[in-house]
Amino acid sequence: MKTSLKPLLLSAVILPAALLATVISMVFIAFGLRALDTEFEERGLGIVSFLAPAAEYGLISGNRPALDALAFGVLEQRDVVAIAFFDAEVRPLVQSGRLSSTPQATLSEVNSPVILGKEGERMVLAAPVMALPLAIDDLMRDVAALDDTSRIGWTVIELDTRSLERSKQDMWFRTLLVTALALMVTAWLATSLAGRFSDVIARLAGAVDALRAGRLDIVVEEASDIRELRTLQQGFNQMARSISESQATLQARVDEATAQLAHLALHDPLTGLPNRRAFEQALDDAVILSRRAGDRDALCFIDLDRFKIVNDTAGHAAGDELLRQVGELIRKHVRASDHLYRIGGDEFVLILRGCGQEEARKIAENLREAVSTLKFDWEGTAFTIGASIGLVRILGEDKSAADILVAADLACYAAKKGGRNQVHEPVAAADSCD
Ligand SMILES: Nc1nc2c(ncn2[C@@H]2O[C@H](COP(=O)(O)OP(=O)(O)OP(=O)(O)O)[C@@H](O)[C@H]2O)c(=O)[nH]1
């Protein structure tokens, strides 16, 4: 099952924190309660321990008013709700406040300050009163070590334990409050930290998805205040930029290569003129335009005369150079609107746009004249060539491009047959050279 980062981060921080806080607060409460109990008991034992020697005189002398005054003074102490003095026969002498229990049965066993027990909201404590020969100034003495005969009575006090219970409740409440506050602060910190962390990661993940989907212009904001995350954001942007630049360079190379291939596919590498394939497309277009718009175009099929001699005498390089010069020469003698092609060997074709029969004838004658008067010099040897030209009208009404090309070829052949270096036009009515 897939899950997102934020809840994972939150549970990774909050759960251990909650567990730790619970354990710490429970330990703290356990120790705190114990300390409160101990402090309460020690305070009670302290009171009876102080009270016993103070009651010695009253018990020996049987001076009840003195014991009353003593009891009254002790009742002023916090949580003391009852006090009683008993003589050596465990008979009550003075009692102040109402005792919740009758401790006489157990008092005879009491040889030192003790907690007799807890009754409801009361804690009962007792201490023996000893007749000491010397003034009591050392309260830490072990009275139980004295002889039983020196015990002249007991003092009993009862403490109200409700303040102890309130203190315990206070402790519970404060500890739980502090724990809850600490957990809330932890949760807030964890939420904000997880938010800062997971937001950045989520945006990076989204950007990676966009990049994978082909959006190379994707950029993430470099705004994280966590150093490592900012490094990730910067790294992603640099990576996306590099990919985008590489892709652009690659695309430019592909475009350039495609353009070169397209040019090569439609051009003759020797003369730079459009080739046979380009010519066939252009002738198709011209035929269609003739049908649709009645355009008046003409086609010249030019085959050089005695070209082979140049090749055979001066070599192929000379023949190549001559083909280039003838191409240039023809281009100079036609109008900008006309289209010249080299369709193979020493064959050139010319589509004369928007050209009447008379004008076409004139152009063809000019070309023939120009080619035949061309002085081609190769390494000191001069060559002259000629041009046999077949001239036909491009009329698409009842002829296809292929028919027109064949007619032009045949017209050119007729020019050759007729003695070379001439322009041949088929009979006007048939537009063919038969
Ligand atoms: N240098 C060079 N020669 C080529 C090229 N393409 C074809 N040729 C040659 O051109 C010649 C064309 O042959 P022909 O048309 O019969 O030669 P020609 O001397 O013009 O003959 P006629 O047309 O009857 O006058 C052949 O020898 C081919 O080898 C090329 O690209 N460069």
Automatic annotation (TrEMBL):
| TM spans (from-to) | 12-33, 171-190
What reaction(s) does this enzyme catalyze? 2 GTP = 3',3'-c-di-GMP + 2 diphosphate
GO BP terms in the entry: cell adhesion involved in single-species biofilm formation; negative regulation of bacterial-type flagellum-dependent cell motility; signal transduction
Keyword Kinase listed = no
**Pfam families listed in its UniProt record:** GGDEF, HAMP, sCache_4
The GGDEF domain sits at 295-428
List its EC numbers: 2.7.7.65
Annotated Gene Ontology cellular components are: plasma membrane
The record's annotation in PROSITE patterns points to: GGDEF, HAMP
Instruction: Identify a single GO molecular function assigned to this protein.
Output: diguanylate cyclase activity
Query: Which residue intervals define the domain HAMP in the entry?
Result: 195-248
Family annotation (Gene3D superfamilies)? 3.30.70.270, 6.10.340.10
Taxonomy, superkingdom: Bacteria
Its top-level enzyme class, in one word, is: transferase
Q: Which UniProt keywords apply?
A: Membrane, Transmembrane, Transmembrane helix
State the protein's name: diguanylate cyclase
Provide the species name. Azoarcus taiwanensis
Cite the source lineage: Bacteria, Pseudomonadati, Pseudomonadota, Betaproteobacteria, Rhodocyclales
